Amino acid sequence: MPSNAVNAQGTVLQISGTGGAAKNITAIALGFPTILTSNGHGLQNGDVVTCAAFTGADAALINGLSFVLSNVTTNTFAIGLDSTGKTITVGSGTATPLSWIGIGEVVSGSGFDGTSAIIDKTNLASVAKEKGVGLQDFGSLRLEVNVYDDDAGQAALKSAKTAQARKNFKVTYPDYTTRTFSGYVMSFPEKFGVDSNITGSVEILVDGDVVYA
To answer: Is the domain covering 18-98 a CATH 3.40.1670.10 domain?
Structure first.
C-alpha cells in the first residue's frame, strides 16, 4: 500500500507575539467542541484566540479564556470547550487571536518526548506490584537552527528566555496539521567551528497540554 509519510520540508515553527485584531462572533453552536461563527475570519487550525463579551449563565466558561482552534472553515472554527447543557449566548462576543512570529533558519526539531509519572498503588494485599499512570508530560521541544540575529523569531526566543516568559508555540507541518502548546525557552546555546555554520540548539520546555489540530 502507498505510504502516508509526510515530507518534513516546509515545516513552519512559530512563537506567539502580541494580540491581533479581534474577530466579531455572530453565532455560537454549543456542544463539544463548541463552534463559533465569524464571517471571513482568516484564522487557521492551531491558532490561539482569547474570547470575551459572551453572555448567558455560563459565560464564565469562555470569557477571558484562551482556546486553540480546530476544524476551521471560511466562516467558522471549533474551540475545545464542552458547552453541552450550558447557557452561553453571543451578545457582543469577540475572539482575539495571537499574532505569530516565524522562527527562521530552523534545520531540524525533535521532542514531545516526556513520559508520565508512575504511581505506586501497591498495598499489603497485593500479590505483585500495582501501578497507575500520572498526568501526561510532553517534555521538551528542541530545535537546531542556523544562528541569525536579525531573524525576528530567533530574537523572540532569546527575549522569552531572558524574561522567563511563558509563550505559545505552533508547529505547522506541510500537510497543514499543527501542534500548539505553551512553554518556556530554557536554553539557546551556540556552537561554531572551522568549516561550519554558527548554529544554535533551542530547548523549549512544554508547559501543559499539546493540542493536535
So the answer is: no
> CB within 8 A of 195, min separation 6: which ones?
none
Q: Boundaries of CATH 2.40.30.180 in the chain? A: 18-98
Q: Is 101 exposed, middle or buried (0-12, 13-18, 19+ CB in 10 A)?
A: buried
Rounded Cα distance between 180 and 197, Å, is: 29
Cell matching residue 149: 540575529
Give one DSSP letter per residue of 110-139, joined into a string: EE----PPEEE---TT-SS--EEE------
Q: What is the pLDDT of residues 65-122, one digit of tens each?
A: 999 999 999 999 999 999 999 999 998 999 999 999 999 999 999 999 999 999 999 9
C-beta separation of 77 from 41 below 8 A:
yes
Instruction: With beta carbons less than 8 A apart as the criterion, state whether 82 and 62 touch.
Output: no
Domain 106-212 in CATH 2.40.10: yes
Q: Is 181 helix (H, G, I), strand (E, B) or coil?
A: strand
- CA atoms of 153 and 105, how far apart (whole Å): 9
* Residue 205 exposed, middle or buried by CB count within 10 Å (0-12, 13-18, 19+): middle
pLDDT in tens, 115-137: 999 999 999 999 999 999 999 99
Residue range(s) in the chain whose domain bears CATH number 2.40.10? 106-212
Q: Which amino acid is at 196?
A: S
